[in-house]
Write a structure and sequence with these properties.
This protein folds into two domains: about 70 residues; about 40 residues, no CATH class. The protein is flat and about 70 Å long. Helix 1 packs antiparallel against helix 3 and helix 4 runs antiparallel to helix 5. By secondary structure, it is mostly helical. The longest helix has 28 residues. The two termini are about 40 Å apart. Helix content is about 65%, strand content about 0%.
Length: about 140
């Protein structure tokens, strides 16, 4: 986790330096008064990238400090058994996530092409989410 903190702070500093260089380069390259010479979209976007990276770095640093120690993933001599064995329950044979992704794609295409497709995407979403939630209640893997 200590490495992650360092990488996020490094990304924040790099983004800030690039934002300054980008703004100064735009001021030197373009003509006119100072307000019209700055390319505002890129400068603000790079500055916000620096602020967001600093926010994530600060959060990860506080979490690392609150843990009072390193995780097994951070120790080079740790074994696989040192970590938490319970990672959750996953269904590698399930087709419902693909149907769920299709419903999201159908909804977004409906927003772009025609709003009449959005209710169809919502209907497919409801079928997919119910099927995914209740896939262990019927069929071969029922409990």
């Amino acid at each position: 986790m200590r490495t992650s903190v360092g990488l996020w702070w490094l990304l924040s500093a790099f983004s800030f330096v690039v934002a300054v260089i980008y703004t100064v380069w735009a001021i030197i390259f373009y003509t006119g008064d100072i307000v019209t010479r700055i390319e505002w979209v890129g400068s603000i976007a790079l500055l916000f990238l620096a602020f967001m990276s600093a926010l994530i770095a600060f959060y990860v640093q506080r979490v690392h400090k609150a843990q009072r120690g390193d995780l097994p993933e951070d120790i080079a001599t740790a074994d696989i058994d040192d970590g938490d064995p319970e990672m959750g329950e996953f269904s590698p044979w399930s087709w419902w996530p693909i149907v769920l992704a299709f419903s999201a794609a159908l909804g977004v295409i409906g927003l772009a092409v025609g709003t009449w497709m959005v209710p169809i995407g919502l209907g497919v979403f409801l079928v997919a989410i119910v099927g995914w939630v209740y896939e262990y209640y019927r069929g071969y893997f029922a409990r």
